[in-house]
Write a sequence for this structure.
């Protein structure tokens, strides 16, 4: 029975964790239109930094890594988030300024492959191909938890973190900042013509999204205690894209649905299936192909996702306009950006172009 | 100094492989105007198809197997374009969708190769050639054949683009698809032929990559992808001759750097060059106006 709950709460953990990861990619891709094919690189950096700062100094151990500060739990996680943000600053300044969507995607996917290569080969950074292991379980000693109880406990902690981050994200997407992001996604030139500094907003979006990636990665290493290059092959980015597209681009509730369907049902449930005799890993490969096919079918049949983005309409308070007739020009101009019905449900309307 | 010339020789081999791959990617990009992120996996599948005919069935000569693999990959590319990519590209005006579809296609193809041939390294069934000293270089017969194949292909593509009706139509489409269509060019046909060429070149590139590295793995094409991207971007995206020049530049610099730094990082040098290009000449070193 304990085994059963162990499985269930492992799934619950991954549900919440991929919800966080999906929110981070959604603000970059779904809200701002940055096709970040290097997303898993930011997740991995968050995981490695979280692990390396919460481990004790590497001197005298079998592992090699930088940092080794013995940092307690919430701070180690924040360090991971901040590290991912720092990488985002560098990446944004090099790539975001002048590149078209597809060149940007090319450079980013190259970045993730190079990062993979360097972390694999430069052992002194994060222990190379073996990755980090024996990362202390946060707060397990404090509450004297067994390893089964820790799984349940940490799944709940992740749930709380996800809830906080969801609250923050829903504030961001509803704010004027979020509206500007969507305007840039729908047409960067129009947004720029209306006086919005496109690069500055894209940078902001990259930073917020990378922080979410770093936190999501940090939670993975804190939960499992280890992290190595096999956990972040470039294909993993596609899984997060699948979560967003299945759930619904630009909708935080949809992301939770997507995380449940893709991450929990399609990825972690098959991992518990026994191997087909004589074909180790075959289930995993077939599973990956199923995800790819499912996403394409979904994109064709229902491009707006299971829970589509709400078309946000802005009611101009009429009496207010009458009272400030002299200065009323300012208010409606800003409103048109948020109230234009066409751009908002990007996916829903694309179909009409055919 | 001799070390430099040795590395230079290997650089020419890498440049030859890279040129085939980069031109195949550029041809298709020029016509359809979106990047095929599954290109590395086209290469891997081509390499494994050649392996199938070379070592598992029929036991053909490796070069013959390479041609069969290339033709099959060309056909696969045509079918994928007809039934998957072009419907998505026509339906959605934003390029996001088709890019994500090619990204997903890469995941599917990679795992297809994994599930058929497994994760282990494979080697082609061919005689081990001894390295001979040719001028300042140290090369074996297979590497010289790879270089010859590459030069012949580049010349053929050059002649096709400049002299044949097909090549002129392709260049016209790459400049302006609508104008080409109104001038009576069968754009659908040209697109199909381009995909066939792109798929075949990917198949050849995958196989010669496997021969020059003397092993193939399912992920080898995908890990090589960023080197191809570097060659294409350094040369100026969408330009065929830029892709050739970029391939020579990247191929030589990765191999020559391997003589002086840890060879494990030699491919990452390509990324450094890519970043420098983006910082100082974002349209590519050999850019032509209006395409970026």
């Amino acid at each position: 029975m304990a085994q059963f709950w162990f499985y269930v709460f492992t799934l619950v953990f991954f549900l919440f964790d991929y919800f966080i990861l999906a929110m981070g990619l959604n603000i970059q891709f779904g809200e701002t239109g940055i096709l970040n094919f290097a997303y898993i690189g930011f997740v991995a950096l968050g995981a490695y930094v979280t692990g390396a700062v919460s481990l004790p100094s590497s001197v005298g151990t079998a592992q090699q890594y930088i940092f080794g500060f013995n940092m307690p739990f919430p701070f180690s996680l924040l360090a991971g988030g901040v590290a991912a943000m720092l990488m985002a600053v560098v990446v944004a300044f090099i790539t975001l300024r002048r590149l078209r969507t597809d060149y940007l995607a090319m450079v980013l996917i190259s970045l993730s492959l190079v990062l993979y290569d360097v972390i694999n080969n430069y052992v002194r950074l994060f222990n190379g191909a073996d990755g980090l292991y024996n990362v202390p379980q946060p707060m397990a000693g404090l509450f004297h938890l067994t390893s089964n109880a820790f799984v349940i406990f940490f799944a709940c902690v992740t749930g709380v973190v996800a809830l906080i981050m969801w609250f923050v994200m829903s504030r961001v997407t509803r704010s004027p900042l979020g509206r500007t992001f969507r305007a840039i996604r729908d047409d960067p030139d129009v947004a720029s013509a209306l006086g919005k500094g496109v690069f500055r907003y894209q940078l902001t979006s990259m930073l917020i999204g990378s922080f979410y990636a770093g936190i999501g990665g940090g939670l993975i290493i804190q939960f499992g205690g280890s992290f190595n290059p096999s956990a972040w092959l470039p294909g993993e980015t596609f899984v997060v894209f699948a979560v967003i597209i299945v759930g619904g681009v630009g909708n935080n509730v949809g992301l939770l649905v997507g995380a449940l369907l893709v991450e929990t049902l399609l990825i972690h449930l098959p991992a518990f299936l026994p191997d087909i005799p004589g074909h180790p890993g075959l289930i995993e490969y077939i599973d990956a192909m199923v995800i790819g096919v499912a996403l394409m079918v979904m994109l064709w049949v229902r491009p707006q996702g299971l829970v589509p983005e709400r078309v946000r309409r802005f009611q101009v308070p009429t009496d207010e306009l009458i009272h400030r007739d002299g200065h009323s020009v300012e208010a409606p101009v800003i409103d048109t950006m948020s109230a234009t019905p066409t751009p908002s449900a990007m996916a829903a309307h694309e179909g009409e172009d055919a | 100094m001799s070390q430099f010339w040795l590395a230079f020789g290997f650089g020419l081999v890498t440049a030859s492989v890279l040129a085939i791959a980069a031109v195949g990617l550029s041809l298709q990009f020029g016509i359809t105007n979106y990047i095929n992120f599954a290109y590395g996996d086209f290469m891997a599948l081509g390499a494994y198809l050649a392996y199938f005919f070379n070592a598992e069935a029929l036991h053909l000569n490796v070069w013959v197997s390479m041609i069969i693999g290339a033709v099959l990959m060309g056909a696969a590319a045509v079918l994928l374009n007809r039934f998957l990519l072009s419907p998505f590209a026509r339906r959605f005006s934003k390029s996001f969708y088709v890019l994500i579809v090619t990204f997903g296609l890469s995941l599917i193809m990679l795992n297809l190769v994994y599930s058929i041939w497994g994760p282990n390294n494979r080697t082609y069934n061919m005689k081990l050639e001894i390295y001979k000293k040719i001028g300042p270089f140290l090369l074996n017969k297979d590497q010289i054949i790879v270089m010859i194949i590459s030069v012949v292909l580049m010349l053929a593509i050059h002649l096709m683009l400049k002299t044949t009706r097909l090549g002129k139509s392709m260049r016209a489409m790459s400049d302006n698809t609508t104008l080409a269509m109104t001038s009576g060019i069968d754009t659908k046909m040209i697109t199909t032929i381009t995909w066939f060429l792109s798929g075949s070149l990917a198949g050849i590139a995958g196989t010669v990559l496997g021969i020059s590295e003397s092993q193939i793995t399912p992920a080898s094409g995908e890990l090589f992808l960023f080197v191809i991207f570097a060659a294409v971007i350094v040369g100026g995206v969408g330009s065929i001759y830029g892709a050739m020049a970029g391939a020579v530049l990247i191929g030589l610099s990765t191999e020559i750097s391997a003589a002086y730094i840890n060879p494990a990082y030699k491919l990452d040098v390509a990324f450094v060059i890519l970043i420098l290009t983006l910082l100082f000449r974002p349209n590519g070193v050999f850019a032509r106006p209006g395409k970026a």
Remarks:
- DSSP finds eleven helices and two strands in chain B.
- Residues 27-227 of chain B form one domain.
- Residues 2-32 of chain B form the longest helix (31 residues).
- The longest strand of chain B covers residues 132-134.
